[in-house]
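Could someone model fructose -6-phosphate with this protein?
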Amino acid sequence: MKIIKAKNYNDMSRKAANIISAQVILYPYSVLGLATGSSPVGTYEQLVEWYAKGDIDFSNTTTVNLDEYVGLDASSKQSYRYFMNEHLFTKVNIDMSKTFVPNGKAEDLYAECRRYDDLITSLGGIDLQLLGIGHNGHIGFNEPSEAFEKTTHCIDLKPSTIEANKVFFYSADEVPRQALTMGIKSIMQAKKVLLIVNTEEKKEILEQALFGSVTPEVPASILQLHPDLTVVTCFE
Ligand code: F6R
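Reply:
Sure, complex below.
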């Protein structure tokens, strides 16, 4: 595990964007696993800036996102598909047909989960997975539980996650209660994992995740077992 200390959010974002752009420059056909939320906004901004300068070419890159709210699709501003279109996909030369986000409006959510896993397998897995961490230690929407869920699945969001994510909605009542999330197996099988953590309030959960016991009660703790994990944080 490599832990890189950044000076602040901008510095963390630049460092993360550097790692992602190195991946895309060295391996243009990479499959990038992407995250949404507040943590990666600056990273995407930086990638967009470097793309505009002509430094990165995404034309051969494929992306698979970690998760999506059940009931929302690209027409909803709070959906993760909308977020990705807004922050990255429409601002660089990526082929939209090679950008994948679970379909939160699928009629058969179970079938959608199987389809998503098959898709990731057919792509040959993920080369670089970008992650944030939830206040309760979740990665993707793998919430604390009694066992690690291996495959893409539908999850009931914990009250603390609903509370944390209400900032993106008009009120907590509007936050969907369920989400589809990539499972721990796809995340752990990514060749490289890049975890970015900016807010000091996540210091304790990050310490538990990186140095505590490996337990599904702290889903991110499984990352200790990943052979190529880089963590970029804004604190000691
Ligand atoms: C989002 C995701 C979540 C977030 C986590 C942190 O796609 O997978 O695990 O990374 O909830 O969210 P922020 O960055 O908003 O603090």
